[in-house]
Design brief:
Blueprint lengths: L1 H15 L13 H35 L6 H40 L12 E6 L2 E6 L8 E4 L1 E5 L4 E7 L4 E4 L6 E4 L5 E5 L5 E7 L11 E7 L1 H12 L8 H12 L2 H4 L23 E2 L4 E2 L2 H9 L1 H4 L12 H12 L3
Parallel strand pairs: 1-5, 4-10
Antiparallel strand pairs: 1-2, 2-3, 5-8, 6-7, 6-9, 9-10, 11-12
Length: 336
């Protein structure tokens, strides 16, 4: 029976990992591995407890179908009641011991999550309705930069994220790397990520935060240290001036419309802080907090009418002519 239960657990784990870029069964981080081991332990132990209870219920029901028919049988049943009371007491003690052991194991598994092995915070993650602002700190202002909805981290290095919220309570959760941690307005939390292998790991807001809570995703990109340093160097640079005529036109349209009041593109007059930083938008994989893959078509649809893609989003529709929309799309998609 135990072997059968183990197979059920393994099969369920395999099914949970069918799409492993957002799965607790795909343990790419040290903390995720601890949490998954704890999950398996809880499942097996509690499954055995449930099985024992069902067996006990079946035995009791079977005995109740044969009531005593004589004084001798009633005496035997009374002795059985006393014996059953001792059994129930023993089981209660075993239950309390099981709960205590599982509680201790849970504490041991979660404690390293807040141990603080990372030397510095390094990254500030700020939750908005409904997107993620990612600020990378540095020793000097020139080393600081901001991106959105993507977190790049080096493999094998503990990275501590400082968690903040700009509006309501959000919750950061990348199940392949670590557990959940809330972002609370007016209160700073933190969480540590340690990726053991390169890969793309999807995260999700795990606390209901409004209409588009389910569409508040993010992507964690774990890469080798050399690749991470190259990415950081590219992100610190200002946006390149467009050389193509259509992209140059798009830059002019972007600067003349309300876009520049809400978004920042470093190296240009656009300095808004209401919406995501777009300095290197073209280097990202998704737009709208992982709602759509980034392509010229999806970007144009988002610019033209974001509410048709993500109802309730704070970005207002921008009135653009067809040629203006194409030019702005070409300009933004080229911001690598």
């Amino acid at each position: 029976m135990i072997r059968r239960m183990l197979w059920l657990v393994l099969i369920s784990g395999a099914l949970a990992g069918c799409r492993d870029w957002q799965s607790a069964a795909n343990q790419a981080g040290a903390e995720a591995a601890r949490i998954w081991s704890l999950t398996l332990l809880f499942t097996i132990v509690l499954g055995l407890v449930w099985l024992a209870v069902m067996v006990a219920v079946a035995i009791v029901i079977r005995r109740r179908q044969n009531p005593p028919v004589s004084l001798h049988d009633a005496t035997l049943e009374d002795a059985g009641h006393r014996r059953n009371s001792r059994v129930v007491g023993s089981l209660l003690a075993a239950t309390a011991l099981t709960v205590a052991i599982l509680t201790v194991l849970s504490f041991i598994a979660q404690r390293p999550l807040f141990a603080g092995r990372a030397a510095t915070a390094g990254i500030r993650l700020i939750g908005h309705q409904w997107w993620w602002e990612v600020r990378y700190d540095g020793a000097t202002p020139s080393q600081m930069f901001t991106t959105a909805n993507e977190i790049h981290i080096p493999v094998g290095t503990p990275i501590r994220l400082s968690l903040e919220s700009n509006d309501v309570i959000h919750s950061f959760w990348v199940p392949s790397l670590a557990g959940k941690q809330d972002l609370i307005p007016g209160h700073n939390n933190s969480i540590e990520l340690l990726a053991r292998r390169p890969g793309l790991y999807r995260g999700q807001c795990a606390e209901f935060c409004g209409l588009q809570h389910a569409h508040m995703g993010l992507l964690v990109v774990a890469e080798e240290p050399d690749a991470f340093e190259k990415w950081q160097a590219a992100q610190r640079a200002a946006a390149e001036q467009p050389q193509e005529s259509d992209r140059a036109t798009g830059a002019q349209v972007f600067a003349s419309k309300p876009c520049a009041l809400c978004h920042t593109i470093r190296g240009t007059p656009a300095g808004g802080t209401v919406g995501p930083d777009l300095t290197h938008l073209g280097s990202r994989a998704y737009i709208g907090a992982d709602v759509l893959p980034l392509t010229p078509g999806t970007l144009a649809a988002w610019i033209a009418d974001p509410h048709s893609v993500k109802p309730g989003v704070n970005m207002p529709p921008v009135q653009l002519q067809g040629d203006e929309l194409n030019a702005v799309t070409a300009y933004l998609i080229g911001l690598k």
